[in-house]
Amino acid sequence: MKHRFVSAALLPLVLFFSNFMWGAATESVLYTFTSGADGGNPYAGPILDSKGNLYGTTVYGGAYNYGAVFELSPGANGQWTETVLHSFNFDGKDGIRPYSSLVMDASGNLYGTTNIGGASNLGTVFRLQPNSDGTWTETVLYSFMGDGIDGTGPYANLVLDKLGNLYGTTYGGGDLGEGTVFEVSPEANDTWQEKVIFFFDYTNGAAPYAGLVADSRGIFYGTTEYGGAFEHGVVFALKRGKGGTWVESVLHQFNPATGDGFEPYAGLVIDSSNHLYGTTLYGGSGGSGTIFEVVQIQGKWREQVIHSFSLTNDGINPYGPLALDSAGNLYGTTWQSIVNNIGGAGIVFELSPVSRTVWQESILHSFETANDGGNPYSGVAVDSAGDVFGTTYYGGLFPGTGVVFEVIP
Predict the structure, then answer these.
(1) Does position 56 have pLDDT exceeding 50, yes or no?
(2) Of 52, 54, 62, 5, which Cα lies nearest the Cα of 32?
(3) pLDDT given for residue 7 in this prediction
(4) What's the rounded Cα separation, in Å, for the pair 374 and 27?
């Protein structure tokens, strides 16, 4: 069943102009969640389809208050309409509490994960299919078992390959309880088979909060929040070996003692030259998190911090992943901020390359205005015009249960 809502945030004066932008960007709230049937508290960022519709998940709200999948569609006069595509139901079958963003296949099907729920209440992989009458049908493709081998508690988004296989991570589970990388593959009669393709053992990483990215060769890259030689997370690569096995390489181990960032919650983005970019929640010269690059030079992988968030005119603690535009600029959000000595509920930023080793940060928007969004955990999506879309976990007109926003640089 679908529920349609026109946001109350689309009343007069919903367009907010930040006083702290380093540029001429403008921000507007496209939709404010009520935490009712329309959903509430979106953790992940939205994805865009070719028609400009946004799709995302909320951790709370929906018909049963266990989270929802929504679509946000542009209409006349700048108004956007929300449609709830699925409300998660704690009935022993469905998943609940989706923290992940979505991925869409060529047929318009959406795929994602829930952190808990399912047959064993340890999380699920789900699919949403559009029907000819405009409704959507949800199918749980896999429920995590927690049997000492399987993973448990996925927070992350999925990656879809050309054959229709889905790949993701679980924060826990596996033979040592440190998390896994898994594959879910379609078989006959729309049945799906799951297998764990890699177990983390703490020395090679632990607790992968984020999902994966893939290069053109089918090599996966990701991060773990903990583990590694310095116990504060790693960047890893996972390559298919002989006989269907997978081999992991640790590309970087985060070391707080050197001024490096540490504890990456978010996953990575990859450019056409196979340079990897990500964020850490803590560390760096300012102590409030970093943006880093990992690049292969003469066969060896090197990491460098390209921006350290500080307590002066900057964001604090980036939880979300980065987005990359065609010009090589990076975009993201932070959970908190201090801009012009005013504490705020996070920023939307752009990081642009000035030279090979120098990057310039611009604050596109600072969340601090009444009825604006606040405290984004999410990453952002960037369209072909360079407009930036994201979600905030808090803020908005109602009980403060989040918004969907747009920033036009």
Answers:
(1) yes
(2) 5
(3) 37
(4) 13
Rounded to two decimals, the pTM is 0.93
Backbone angles phi and psi of 10, in degrees to 5: -95, 25
The whole-number pLDDT of residue 192 equals: 98
CA 86 to chain centre: 19
Query: Is 69 in contact with 110 (CB distance < 8 Å)?
Result: yes
Choose the weakest-confidence range: 1-10, 169-178, 191-200. 1-10
Q: Are 228 and 234 in contact (CB under 8 A)?
A: yes
- pLDDT tens-digit series, residues 117-134: 999 999 999 999 999 999
CB burial of residue 38 (10 Å; 0-12, 13-18, 19+): buried
Sheet of 359-366: strand order equals 323-324, 330-333, 347-353, 359-366
Asked whether the predicted pLDDT for residue 370 surpasses 90, the reply is no
Q: What is the pLDDT of residue 24?
A: 67
Q: Which fold has domain 3-408?
A: Methylamine Dehydrogenase; Chain H (2.130.10)
Q: Which two tokens stand for residue 21?
A: 């932008």
CA atoms within 13 A on the CB side of 243: 2
**Side-chain-facing half-sphere of 93: CA atoms under 13 Å:** 5
Return contacts of 235-241, CB within 8 angstroms, 24+ apart: 235/264, 235/268, 235/276, 235/278, 235/294, 235/301, 235/303, 236/204, 236/205, 238/181, 238/197, 238/198, 238/212
Q: In what helix (H) or strand (E) does residue 246 lie, and over which residues does it extend?
A: strand 246-253
Its sign, for the CA torsion 124, 51, 73, 266, is positive
Q: Answer whether residue 6 shows pLDDT above 60.
A: no
- What is the model's pLDDT at position 397? 85
Q: State whether the Cα torsion 260-262-359-21 is positive or negative.
A: negative
How does DSSP assign 362-377, residue by residue?
Answer: EEEEE--STTSEE---
Return the DSSP state at 295: E
CA dihedral 84, 86, 90, 95 (to 10 degrees): -130
Tell me what the pLDDT averaged over the chain comes to: 93
**Domains in the chain: boundaries:** 3-408
pLDDT confidence bin for 11, thresholds 50/70/90:
very low
**DSSP assignment of 45-75:** PPEE-TTS-EEEEESB-STTSS-EEEEEEE-
